[in-house]
Amino acid sequence: ISITDESVGGAEPNTVSLRREIPVMDVNDNAPEFHGRPYSVVLSENIKSGSVIYSNITVLDADEAHNAEIFIDCVTGGCDTFAVTTEKIGDGHYRGSLSLKKPLDYEMTSSYSLTLRASDLSTTNPLMATANVAISVKDVQDQPPVFLNAPYSASLQENTSPGFQVLQIKAKDGDSGDPRPVLLTIEGDTLNYFKLVKNTLVTNQKPVDREHPLVLQNGGVYTFTVKATELINNELPGDFSEERVTIVVTDVDDQIPEFNLPVFEINVSENIAIGTPLPGLNMVVSDRD
């Protein structure tokens, strides 16, 4: 500010100058801004809880003081699984980091789309901005094979011809991201009644016999298991699962009645009365059906 008087009699005018600074108060007219987008990350499902998974979230605010103080939080898309922390780098410059709150499971959720919110701390006119973080979960081989159509049971007549298709057995790798091939085998078929042709259980060359002691003692029920094994590189065995197979063997009249003796000899008096049991005769007929 300068003040100059009027010249008198041709003399130089006098000038007085004063300097004053007028402070301009900041108004919260700049919303926070996310920089470095898009944000994306790929995670292995076996990453440990508590791990920091992403820290490249930058937020800037052109305002000053508390109008430039930023808080970053999660709004939707997986806030129960991921936590957000806010770190101040400088005035109006903040960094957000994501960490894992609980274990991941590819088979349950293979991807997330988090919505983050950056809010300034203005008390009069708070402003905010949002950004998305795309998170892809990478599958890890941590699940055994699963049987698709279990439980397995069937009713089968004894002496059924070889190659008869009893039932279908289907299994697959429990990991769906990069599944391995699965090999099916029979375990515990001690009588060798059955075999697997691809994924079909069929009768073997040996006829099924309901009267065999191992079957008969269980009331005509024959049980064994099928085993599904993952193949690593199509060769090495990996994780496996087992499922019980129950076969109810129904009876066929294939047994001839038998007397306990081939010849019976007894002596009776000639005057024995009609209807009298023959003394000493012990005749027993048995049928194994």
Query: What number is the mean pLDDT?
Result: 90
The CATH superfamily title of the largest domain:
Cadherins
What top-tier CATH class of the largest domain fits best?
Answer: Mainly Beta
Strand arrangement within the widest β-sheet reads 3-5-8-7
CATH architecture of the largest domain: Sandwich
Q: Structural class given helices, strands, pairing?
A: mainly beta
- Using the CA coordinates, give the radius of gyration: 44 Å
> What's the helix-strand series?
EEEEEEEEEEEEEEEEEHEEEE
Q: What's the CATH topology name of the largest domain?
A: Immunoglobulin-like
Question: What features would you highlight for this structure?
Answer:
289 residues, mainly beta, Immunoglobulin-like, 2 domains, 4-stranded antiparallel sheet, 4-stranded mixed sheet, 21 strands, 1% helix, 44% strand, calcium, transmembrane helix, membrane, Cadherin-like_sf, Cadherin-like_dom
